[in-house]
């Protein structure tokens, strides 16, 4: 889906560079092919998806920047467990923001996770 979406012209325009657009893609209902033995049983597939997504976003970086996209998020469904989340930011050259892995998109700002990650090793506790 991403391979088809990213090369297309985006209907967003940001000539000022001030507006921050965010794109979120939801993959489901079953984004992962592995047996669901637990929340983290999809780690290997998630890591591979993140690597592929980082490469695709870097390849489409000019189009994303022109459209004012500064944040790209993925939500991957894995019923019966809660979804997995990955966040990619332009200021990190579209690398995944690992301190925000598996956090809902709004948590990064509400909890000031990026600030915490500068001084501490942030890890999800389930």
Structure description:
The chain is an alpha+beta fold. Helix content is 30%, strand content 21%. A three-stranded mixed beta sheet has the order 1-2-3. A hairpin with a 2-residue loop joins strand 2 and strand 3. The longest helix has 17 residues. The radius of gyration is 15 Å and the shape is globular. The protein starts with a helix and ends in a 7-residue tail after the last helix. The mean pLDDT is 81.
SS content category: alpha+beta
- Nearest-angstrom radius of gyration? 15 Å
As a percent range, the share of strand residues is 15-25%
Along the chain, the helix and strand elements come as: HEHHEEHH
Look at the structure and give the mean pLDDT. 81
The biggest beta sheet reads: 3 strands, mixed
Number of strands: 3
Q: Which keywords apply here?
A:
3-stranded mixed sheet, 126 residues, 30% helix, alpha+beta, globular
What's the helix and strand layout?
Blueprint: H1 2-5, E1 21-27, H2 43-59, H3 61-66, E2 69-78, E3 81-89, H4 107-110, H5 113-119
Parallel strand pairs: 1-2
Antiparallel strand pairs: 2-3
Task: Write a short abstract of this structure.
By secondary structure, the protein is α+β, with helices and mostly antiparallel strands.
